[in-house]
TrEMBL record:
Protein name as annotated: Beta-glucuronidase
This protein's UniProt keywords: Glycosidase, Hydrolase, Signal
Pfam families: Glyco_hydro_2, Glyco_hydro_2_C, Glyco_hydro_2_N
Family assignment from sequence similarity: Belongs to the glycosyl hydrolase 2 family.
Native source organism of the sequence: Pseudoxanthomonas broegbernensis
Organismal lineage: Bacteria, Pseudomonadati, Pseudomonadota, Gammaproteobacteria, Lysobacterales
Length: 624
């Protein structure tokens, strides 16, 4: 009997609540109740709200005491001891990192409790209700009305919890313990070259759906020649036999099918009149997926991406990726993580001003605004998981974390025409353990999505018998479609003039993509080209590097590091870096440096060299 009572009490405390489902749930185009805006917050570096003085978690106790912050308690008698009060605590804006909202939190790495009070969204008794998080960095322990919903780890991918039957009509308390501490077994691990922005950095929404709803779908152009589209729909809550109708009204497509017992239905149909999506013509089509009681509406582009030998083919025609690397940071207003679609649009607009047709979204999945705006604005995109530098390759939990982030990234963005590359790693040191870890990830990525290119930012070394021959050779490259690498000749590796003499050996019959090069410049600092940190130094480095890259066989594109200066705890030189990595071709305020115009002119010279409809968008303007 005791065991039963114990289990019931755990259930009551929510410790064994339903775990967050990791399967996609496309919410971006759904009508939802936003929980964005002001949340109350308590900074809790010793996690007093989570552990008792014997360091035992409160949420493992059958009846958590009012001292547990997730109970959101108030004094019930004049003598009751309660040592916190959300209503009297600080406020933080959601979405947003905490580092740039309160100077006391600029460097903070630890736990912050967030609390939002809300009334239940209107819904029918048969409806289901979820709370959906765009991303929380890094670990989130989530509680509703004092009961634990579950835990999510990973700072850049969406997750949700079902709260059906758990809501009060009014006065619900949603509490998160957000912990952005870094861990050696984390993904990313302890060391990165970007600021560890903590918090609920993307939107929080309540989603009401019927008992049977469209949880996911996939649409992709499977055959260019036949203009044949392959699609699938996944219903949640289906018993099998339910009818689902998939329509693309502008193309006169209306396909109907019954789902199987697992809720899935497949489709194959031809779209002879469809305009293919490309940077020069980012045509999106409305898609409607309807089942009794639920309709999901979205917009998708139809295109193909492939590698044939050393050629990169967009819609069957060679394309050159005129790229730029981008962090998900908007510091023009002193902020940190991109907070909304307007900031996302500004970053991509700056990329378009470079005459770019490609953005490398480094080093983690960016927010959904960015990939959806890339669809609209005609920018191809590379999306990556933060398997960065010295990951704990032999740790199975670390692998599972990386795989979960990969699945969540692909699950969210698999219908975005702009995304053409999934990247699995950045500058990871070659070892047997790392090769095993990444080959598992490659297999998982192929299983989740075989319609896109796989890559990773690898590294170069020099031939032992000739210091002027740079070699890109990595066991990982055998498994990838695009041989990508970062190189810093002129910055970390000799002077810019070294680029004039270096030759490259890249022994793969695959397209070659230079995922990073660059050097720092403080915007507004001028001197001669030999003076480090000046705009002239960076400008000279760009000119010589771009000329060197043009000599690489199979060179299919480049994404210089990086669009804008960004915060990093590694960049401490007073008066020059001041917590900023200055490799941007623009300052963090969006002021263009001389290198910006070198890159733009280089891309203007290459625009239209790529096929697939990749003509420079109207309004790109004449060359200078
Ligand atoms: C590396 C790394 C970047 C880093 C850059 C630099 O290549 O991929 O994340 O910011 O070099 O050192 O500036």
């Amino acid at each position: 009997m005791f065991v039963l009572c114990w289990l019931l009490s755990l259930w009551a405390a929510g410790a064994c609540a339903a775990p967050a489902s990791d399967a996609p749930m496309q919410v971006y185009t759904r009508a939802t109740q936003s929980l964005d805006g002001e949340w109350k917050a308590i900074v809790d570096p010793y996690e007093n709200g989570y552990y008792n003085y014997r360091y035992e978690p409160f949420d493992r106790q059958p009846e958590p005491p009012p001292g547990a912050f997730f109970t959101d308690s108030k004094m019930r008698t004049p003598s009751e001891l309660i040592e916190y009060d959300f209503d009297k605590s600080i406020s933080l804006q959601v979405p947003g990192d905490w580092n740039t909202q309160d100077p006391r939190l600029y460097y903070y790495e630890g736990s912050v409790w967030y609390r939002k009070k809300f009334d239940a969204p209107s819904h029918r008794p048969s409806d289901r209700v979820f709370v959906h998080f765009g991303a929380v960095n890094y670990r989130a322990d989530v509680y509703l009305n004092g009961r634990k919903l579950g835990v999510h780890e990973g700072g850049f991918t969406p997750f949700r919890f079902e709260v059906t039957g758990r809501l009060k009509d009014a006065g619900n308390s949603l509490v998160l313990k957000v912990d952005n501490k870094r861990h050696a077994d984390g993904v990313p691990t302890l060391n990165t070259d970007w600021w560890n922005y903590g918090g609920i950095t993307r939107s929080v929404e309540l989603v009401v759906v019927p008992a049977v709803f469209v949880r996911d779908y996939r649409l992709a152009l499977a055959s260019l020649e036949d203009r044949e589209v392959e699609g699938s729909v996944l219903l949640d809550g289906a018993q099998g036999g339910e009818r689902v109708v998939l329509s693309l009204p502008e193309l006169g497509i209306r396909e109907s099918a019954e789902v199987a017992a697992d809720g899935r239905a497949g489709f194959r149909f031809r779209v002879p009149g469809a305009h293919l999506w490309s940077p020069g013509n980012p045509r999106l089509y409305r898609v409607e997926i309807a089942t009794e009681g639920d309709t999901l509406v979205d917009r998708v582009g139809l295109r193909t991406i492939a590698a044939r030998g050393r050629q990169l083919l967009l819609n069957g025609e060679p394309v050159f990726l005129r790229g730029i690397s981008v962090h998900e940071e908007y510091s023009a207003d002193g902020g940190g993580r991109v907070r909304d679609a307007q900031q996302a649009r500004q970053l991509l607009q700056w990329a378009k001003e470079l005459d770019a047709n490609f953005v490398r979204l480094a080093h983690y999945p960016h927010n959904e605004h960015i990939v959806r705006l890339a669809d609209e604005m005609g920018l191809l995109a590379w999306s990556e998981i933060p398997v960065y530098w010295t990951i704990d390759w032999t740790n199975e939990a670390t692998y599972r974390n990386a795989q979960d982030q990969l699945a969540a990234m692909i699950g969210r963005d698999a219908n975005r025409a702009s995304v053409v590359v999934w990247s699995l790693a950045n500058e990871t040191p070659v070892s047997e353990a790392r090769n095993r870890f990444l080959s598992r990830l490659v297999a998982k990525a192929r299983a989740l999505d075989d319609t896109r290119l796989l890559s990773a930012a690898m590294e170069k070394h020099y031939r032992s018998d000739d210091p002027d021959v740079a070699v890109v050779e990595d066991p990982l490259a055998d498994l990838l479609d695009l041989v990508s690498f970062n190189q810093y000749i002129g910055w970390y590796d000799g002077p810019p003039e070294k680029a004039d003499r270096v030759r490259w050996e890249i022994p793969y019959d695959k397209p070659v993509f230079v995922s990073e090069f660059g050097g720092d410049a403080l915007q507004g600092l001028h001197g001669d080209a030999g003076q480090i940190w000046t705009e002239e130094f960076q400008e000279n480095l760009y000119r010589r590097t771009l000329a060197m890259l043009d000599r690489i066989e199979g060179y299919a594109g480049v994404s210089p590091w990086i669009l804008a200066d960004f915060r990093s705890p590694r960049r401490l030189l007073p008066g020059i870096q001041d917590d900023y990595n200055r490799k941007g071709v623009m300052s963090e305020k969006g002021v263009k440096k001389k290198a910006f115009f070198v890159l733009r002119d280089y891309y203007r010279g290459r625009a239209g060299q790529g096929g697939g409809g990749d003509v420079a968008a109207a309004g790109a303007g004449p060359p200078p």
